[in-house]
Amino acid sequence: MNNKVLYIRKDKKNFICKGHRLFLDQNEIIDIPLNRWKKYIANIRLFNRIFRLQPRCMTILNNNTYLIVFQKHIYIFFFPEKRFIEAIPVRKGFGNPLHLCSTYYNGKAEVLWGDYGHNDHHLPVNIYRYNDTEGIQTAYTFPAGSIRHIHNIVYDQYHNRYFIFTGDFEKQSGIYTASTNFSEVKPYLTGKQDYRCVIGRALPNGLLYATDAVMQPNHIFFKEYGQQVPKMLCEINGSVIYGTPINDGLLISTTVEPYPSIPKYKILSMFDYRLGKGIKSRDTDIIYISKELQITHIYRLHKDAWPMRLCQYGQVEFPEIYCADEQTSILCSPMSLKKYDGKICKIDLENFSFSPINQNSL
To answer: How much of the chain is helix, strand and coil, in % rounded to 5?
Structure first.
């Protein structure tokens, strides 16, 4: 199977990528923009994983316009016209943005994202905004060497501001706050791996987040507004790269990822089976944290035998959701995990259960 759920609309219908085709539930829509040979190998699961042929993420700009990230390009997708146009290629020295931040839910049709990738030459790092009126603009630039890249941008509706999550190492790792026009960007929590995160949610009384450390243990933290130090809620078995705010809480998956790559042995590192020191097992856990900070471990999946860096980390990916606080269940996409890789599964948020769904019904 080569299925991945990308976006859940207001009407609860799902945009799903199957191989090289985009579907809305069971209705086939259009080929995603790949050349002929990539379309062919996109249907072969192992090649799909090695060449990263599935879109990474998708979000909404307005009622009928979406942004989709894949193959180092940002595409605009018009529906129901069923039309793709390339908005912008990814900047040289970087890769696909890890996440997109839509402000459509907050009454403004705009999407934000930041440069993400190795950034080997310590370039300045940009945050971009896109809307129908002004197109794509650079909203803010971090100076050269100050951060490696942007992990995510999260809107704080209670203070009308953004949290910016950056990585990766010590002084480059952290959380910044930004005004909505990015005229003021300032450090919030920086300089420690405890502040290195990708997934978080602003709650009425504080910021909830999970760490993304490879070489030290990972935790779920809660930083109460007005307090200087985040409260550690619990230790988790791996880093967190994917998650989604849902039903007043936060749904996350831990990641099975390898020891950091050594530039001198870049090819050998592609086949490295060693886990990073902060990755405690070859299991991926699905975890839900409520707004009351109660933690529920929903399900555990095991990494398959293929190399982590070459054939992708073990993780569960979640779609962007139009109405994040009105869901009784959510579809998700396990990656590089035994029995479930390339399949779409369902998480029931009422009884906290996990199950594969009939792939032929998609």
So the answer is: 10, 50, 40
Q: How many CB atoms lie within 10 A of CB 172?
A: 20
Residues 6+ apart with CB under 8 A from 240: 197, 198, 199, 210, 211, 212, 218, 252, 253, 254, 255
Of 306, 254, 260, nearest to 281 by C-alpha is 254
Question: How many whole angstroms separate alpha carbon 77 and alpha carbon 13?
Answer: 16
pTM surpassing 0.90? yes
C-alpha 354/C-alpha 334 separation (Å) is 11
| Identity at 203, one-letter amino acid code | L
Length of the chain: 362
Inter-CA distances, 287 with 41, 298, 346, Å = 33, 6, 14
Residue pair 163/207 in contact (Cβ under 8 Å)? The answer is yes
Residue 281 and residue 314: Cα distance in Å, rounded?
11
Give the pLDDT confidence of 210-260 residue by residue, as tens digits.
Answer: 999 999 999 999 999 999 999 999 999 999 999 999 999 999 999 999 998
* Nearest Cα to Cα of residue 285 among 308, 315, 317: 315
Place of tokens 């602003």: 202
pLDDT tens-digit readout, 171-217: 899 999 999 999 999 999 999 999 999 999 999 999 999 999 999 99
